[in-house]
Amino acid sequence: MSAEYNTYIIEHVDNVKKAYFWLKDHNIIKEDILDQLNLHDASKYTDEEYKAYDLYFYGTKTEKVKKDFDYAWLHHIHENPHHWQHWVLVNDDEGTYALEMPKEFVYEMICDWWSFSHKTGNLYEIFDWYKAHTKKMILHENTKKLVEEILDKIKKELNKDK
Q1: If we measure between CA atoms, which residue out of 21, 23, 30 comes closest to residue 158?
Q2: Which are the contacts of 101, defined by CB distance < 8 A and separation ≥ 6?
């Protein structure tokens, strides 16, 4: 077990909650998802993920470490519905498409993304991150619309606080 990785997980979950409380305090979301957030990324402590993540981020990236991480990541997105990849269906006959995400998981996903901005203290980072990554995301149109509405509200509130 890596003390660095343990610290990372604890800080990450704390920053996810900071993002959530900011959104609640600014009336961007009204739902209470704190119980859900208390379990945020709990699967990172499982045998299927812990060692692979630890070695990938805090060890030497050998081919085996990279392969093990891919399996851990696959496990992670299947266990954590706050990842958009969880909602992508690879269908035998109809191709690949996204199912609509329930809003509580959209909220958690945004808190997850925004947690990294809370770590650095630059709360505007999320907008550049989203712009850079949105082209690769497979989101249901309603999910994408909700994500962008929330991001717009965040930006407006941040600009008010300037």
Answers
A1: 23
A2: 81, 84, 87, 109, 139, 140, 143
